[in-house]
Design a protein that fits this description.
With 283 residues, this protein is mostly beta strands. It contains no helices and 22 strands.
Amino acid sequence: KVTYAGITVRTGMVAKNDGSWNTTFVVPSSTKGGHTVDASGSTTTASDVADVTFTVSPGLSVEPTSGYVGDEIEVNGSGFATNESGIKITLDGVVVKSSITADAEGYWETSFTLPTCVTGAHAIDSYGNMTIATDVSDTTLTVLAQIVLSPKSGNVGDNIRVKGTGFSGEKDLTVSYDLVTVVTGLSTDADGNFSTSFEAPKGKSGEINVTAMDTKGVTVSAIFTMETTPPDIPRAASPKDGSTVGFIGDTKVTFDWTDVSDQSGVHYALEVSPQFDFGITLV
């Protein structure tokens, strides 16, 4: 069997005829520094085997490894000192979480809310009262761009607000609606944020792509749903259905239909024909 710091981590190995064998094991949660790896068998005692020292260095892991501004990011630390306190997490050198304490095995876990920052890779590091940042193996978190629409559905003429995060810093940016540019002359701030608005133009109904693109090529889309309910069908108000007029002489007939309205400005085109197939139209 193989032991790590006195704990059995692998069993069941059988030596070859020449007495050699090999195996692997997962390093258990450990404090930073050296830990003894030993082995023994049915005819070989641990004291007969020359010890090997395995050195644990502090490190971090994040989940997820990519995300949007405002996401909750989980961070696990291992290999810190026993019960080490005062541990902090930094994002590109700026503290985003503090007052963390490791357990007896030098392990800790916590989370932080991803603050506003530009698109791309960002360094996650950590340090504590007994562990310096340069001793900790850094990890990387990738920030993704996104846009949020408000409202997400509506009618022609509605004011659509667009808020973007995670874009390139201080770059010109355009917003398009169904591939037609509706906002220009806009720039992101130093942290890749922007905010703007536009009126929903006339066009097709249903799901419409609203797209923001900065001059470094960062492009993100979101869906605006244009209402799809047609206006009510106008009904003949005068003359009444089935009524007759003009048996003798010239009679002027006035046609009138009920009024209908639509929030998006959709209207009907009226045609009048004496033929059911509208081969000839009078109006």
